[in-house]
């Protein structure tokens, strides 16, 4: 690594010469350093030093985690169900956020525990109010895609102070809900990093 | 590193000899490899190879994060306040979990949004029920300490399916609540890892 730092870009042959080693002896070491990301190899140019520390390389690895690696199954309700039924669904399914869909099964709104709690201390009869009166609706819904970097979605959850986001697929008519990503999923990702599980 | 792998434990002097280098030339390299955790140095024994990869070393680093590095300020209510007032406090303070304390300011219970939502769809008058009727109470409360490894608390939040835990100080009479650790804090820790911020 010191030789590559000092003389890079440098060919494997020249490195071997400086170390008084054969190219063949050196090859596995160069392969490991390249795989680990400390060195980069370019055809017809040679090896150069990436300048990355072990920690930076690990940060790069975290950035490669995708939403689809950690997402959960979404729980949806129709926009005409009552607030009372939505609360019951939330308890039965044991989730913190429900997604509301229209008659074409496209994303129409989001209901958090906070939204439902706010409605429940109001004076209205919960069985008489449809969820589309109290839900957060498009275009005010933060959505994400299964290929999004997990870490970016984590940052958006924090920034927007929300617990969950629908994972969607864009169609001509609107968004189909294909998943749910929450702070619980982020906590699991954090744990799996420490277990060297990613 | 290959020399230490093959011959360790081995003194710096012997390594230098094998490389045809002076001890002085080698010293900074050995210092870096030791600091990074790849090698370990024992007085009067020499260097040996720890067998840890960059990823394992990063996992070790995560395991050193403490609760106190990420905890938030706790929001507490007295055990005699009504469920209605607790809900209002939850909205005013914008938290997902309240801690309930007794007349000596010791931890008596925990109130999640889920607990409050469940109570709010009941038939009772929310201003007439004290929180100690519906709260999760000692000894069923999961608590943690400011020196606990963050990652262990993250695992317990997932295992117990709760959003938050009180950070406590143990006294002769009971637990004083000194902090709050939540899945939001865990999400922030996850983000800070990717930013190489720990």
Distance between the termini of chain A: 27 Å
Looking at the structure, what is the overall shape of chain A? elongated
Residue stretches of chain A low in confidence (pLDDT < 50, at least 5 long) are none
Order of helices and strands of chain A: HHHEEHEHEEHEHEEH
What is the count of structural domains of chain A? 2
Share of residues in strands of chain A: 15-25%
What is the share of helical residues of chain A?
Answer: 25-40%
Number of strands of chain A: 8
Largest interface: A-B, 45 and 46 residues
Give the CATH H-level superfamily of the largest domain in chain A: CBS-domain
Q: Would you tell me the overall average pLDDT of chain A? A: 90
**Biggest beta sheet attributes of chain A:** 4 strands, mixed
CATH fold-level name of the largest domain in chain A: CBS-domain
CATH class value of the largest domain in chain A? Alpha Beta
How many H/I helical runs of chain A?
8
**Physical arrangement of strands within the biggest beta sheet of chain A:** 3-4-5-6
The rounded Rg of chain A comes to 25 Å
By oligomeric state, this entry counts as homodimer
The helix-and-strand class of chain A reads alpha+beta
Q: At CATH's second level, what is the architecture of the largest domain in chain A?
A: Roll
Sum this structure up briefly.
The structure is a homodimer of 198-residue chains. Chain A has helices spanning 2-7, 12-19, 23-35, 54-63, 83-93, 113-120, 150-160, 183-194, and strands at residues 39-42, 46-49, 76-78, 97-101, 107-112, 136-137, 164-170, 175-182. By secondary structure, chain A is of the alpha+beta class.
């Amino acid at each position: 690594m010191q030789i590559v730092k000092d003389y890079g870009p440098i060919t494997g042959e020249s490195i071997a010469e400086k170390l008084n080693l054969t190219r063949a002896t050196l090859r596995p070491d160069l392969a490991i350093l390249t795989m680990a990301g400390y060195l980069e190899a370019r055809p017809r140019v040679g090896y150069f030093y990436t300048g990355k520390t072990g920690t930076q390389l690990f940060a790069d690895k975290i950035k490669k985690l995708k939403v689809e690696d950690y997402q959960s199954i979404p729980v949806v309700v129709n926009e005409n169900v009552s607030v009372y039924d939505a609360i019951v669904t939330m308890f039965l399914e044991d989730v913190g956020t429900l997604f509301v869909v229209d008659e074409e099964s496209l994303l129409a709104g989001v209901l958090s525990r906070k939204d439902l709690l706010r409605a429940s201390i109001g004076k209205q009869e919960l069985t008489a109010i449809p969820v589309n009166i109290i839900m957060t609706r498009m275009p005010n819904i933060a959505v994400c895609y299964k290929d999004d970097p997990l870490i970016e979605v984590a940052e958006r959850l924090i920034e927007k102070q929300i617990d969950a986001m629908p994972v969607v697929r864009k169609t001509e008519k609107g968004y189909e809900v294909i998943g749910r990503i929450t702070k619980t999923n982020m906590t699991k990702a954090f744990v799996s990093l420490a277990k060297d599980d990613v």
